[in-house]
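Researcher: Sequence recovery benchmark, item below. Answer with residues only.
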């Protein structure tokens, strides 16, 4: 197996000046992300020399490493979406994503209410993702770093509702944190993803 290390993405300066999410929270959150990158690299090194003949579904080194790798990689991907689309001024989604939201949820208010409730109901993540099979947006729950929305769906909005994302600022008031999340979304970034993935908007 060819193993290449990756390095964490830098924290954008705009993320240190968010409205309602503190610099202390974002710096701590980014350090967690850096830890996931480090563990991803360590696990891949270990897999390069693991005994394949010892694989077992009850317990084996291979099983443990492979399961933990999905957790580390899931955390990396989730956080990279999360960090990348924060730093904006929130407000009403415009452009392609605005049109998709209005088409698939009837209104921005309905989408926002649904994602907010999904985030309150979730134990780890809530996503707005485009389902390529159904051809529309849906808000999904993911309770852990390695539970993705669904296969063949592309996350466009990633809401981290683990306590580490908000506890320093809001303690147990998750709804207030979610409102702050909405207020800092950068819709230009999300529209860039819609274009890059060639998501149909008609």
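Model:
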């Amino acid at each position: 197996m060819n193993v290449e290390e990756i390095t964490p993405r830098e924290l954008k300066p705009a993320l240190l000046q968010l409205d309602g999410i503190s610099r202390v929270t974002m710096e701590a959150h980014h350090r967690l992300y850096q830890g996931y990158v480090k563990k991803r690299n360590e696990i891949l090194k270990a897999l390069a020399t693991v005994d394949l003949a010892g694989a077992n579904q009850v317990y084996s080194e291979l099983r443990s490493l492979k399961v933990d790798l999905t957790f580390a990689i899931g955390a990396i991907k989730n956080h990279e979406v999360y960090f990348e689309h924060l730093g904006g001024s929130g407000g009403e989604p415009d452009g392609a994503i605005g049109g998709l939201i209005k088409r698939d949820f009837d209104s921005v208010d309905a989408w926002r209410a649904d994602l907010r409730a999904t985030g309150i109901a979730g134990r780890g993540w809530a996503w707005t993702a485009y389902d390529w099979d159904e051809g529309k947006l849906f808000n999904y729950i993911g309770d852990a770093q390695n539970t993705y929305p669904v296969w063949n769906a592309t996350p466009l909005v990633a809401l981290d509702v683990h306590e580490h994302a908000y506890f320093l600022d809001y303690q147990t008031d998750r709804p207030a944190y979610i409102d702050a999340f909405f207020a800092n979304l950068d819709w230009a970034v999300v529209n860039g993803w819609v274009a890059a993935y060639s998501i149909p908007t008609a």
